[in-house]
Amino acid sequence: MALSLAELVRLLPPPAPAAPAIPTGIAALDAVLQGGGLPRGRLTEIVGGTGSGKTTLARAVVEAAVADRGWVAYVDAQRTLDARDWVHLGDADGVWMIRPHDATRAAWCADVLLRSGAFALVVLDGAPTLTKSAAVRLTRLARDGGAALVILGDRAGAASQLGGAVRLVVERATPGSRRSSRPDGRHGSSSSSNNNSSSSDESRTRTIAVRVEKGGTLRTVEVSCAVAVARRLCAHSEVPDRRGVARGPAGGNRHARSGRAASPSPLPAGSLTAVEPSRELRTAVERARALG
Question: Are strands 121-125 and 166-172 parallel, antiparallel or unpaired?
């Protein structure tokens, strides 16, 4: 008995409802993303240059997930997150901060976290570019566990070779586009008439531009941050790195593990002067030589 396509569709069970997306905590950005946030079971890429505001945006997503009573795992592959920007989440339940000894082990950490199925959001920050096979495996684990997988990467290169369902590009706002927060919560340009009253607020507020390249309406959203761009810890070039990871590419040299400190800079010629030993010292040296 031949059945039409419509009859076959009616016989099939209805698809399972999709899990609600993870909100970013920014209403203007959620409005242009499909599903109203970062999709669960998919890969989301947040890319941008150094100091552009990637970590600030990731922190907003983490705070929104914690407010929604979801468990969050943040893998700090480079071990450079500043605790001052995250200490307010210390009393929240279900917030895990993972700092592997080696940046190349960050993908393995994300694998273990996604397999547990306990986390609604897993953030991979500072890891080397994921290979296609690793990205496919992590995305499949995120789909099985209903978690949103977010990877932070540089603007020059993609965060993964696979490419995510959502791609957000974070850029620094130009000085002319800085805006101050109004009392009603909207963002507007500061006028010259209230420069004196808003100068202190503008010094504490910075604007970052988030461009949606994939996974939503192609547009740029300006985000006003009450706190400046999230701080990162850096290693001094002449001081041994005590955090376990030295400045450099992901998975690069680690002075603390190898036990090698950075070599000090050579002293300029002529900076050392000869010191004449005292008479007591010469006498003691002569007696020691006489005694053999």
Answer: unpaired
Q: Per DSSP, what are the bridge partners of residue 207?
A: 224
Closest CA to 122 of 111, 137, 133: 111
Classify each residue of 219-240 as buried b or exposed e, where b means 16 or more C-beta atoms within 10 Å of its C-beta: eebbbbbeeebbeeeebeeeee
Token code pair at residue 96: 């895990």
Q: Over the stretch 223-245, which tens digit does the pLDDT of each residue have? A: 876 545 567 776 544 444 544 44
- The better pLDDT of the pair 271, 112 is held by 112
CA distances from 11 to 1, 8, 14, 15, 16 (A): 15, 5, 9, 12, 15
- Report whether 113 contacts 73 (CB < 8 A): yes
Residue 248 parent element (H or E): none
Determine the longest span between alpha carbons in the chain, in angstroms.
119
What tokens were used for 236?
């001094």
165-222 pLDDT per residue, tens: 999 999 887 655 444 434 344 444 333 344 444 444 444 567 889 999 998 888 888 8
Q: Could you report how far apart the first and last alpha carbons of the chain are, in Å?
A: 115
Coil, strand or helix at 187 = strand
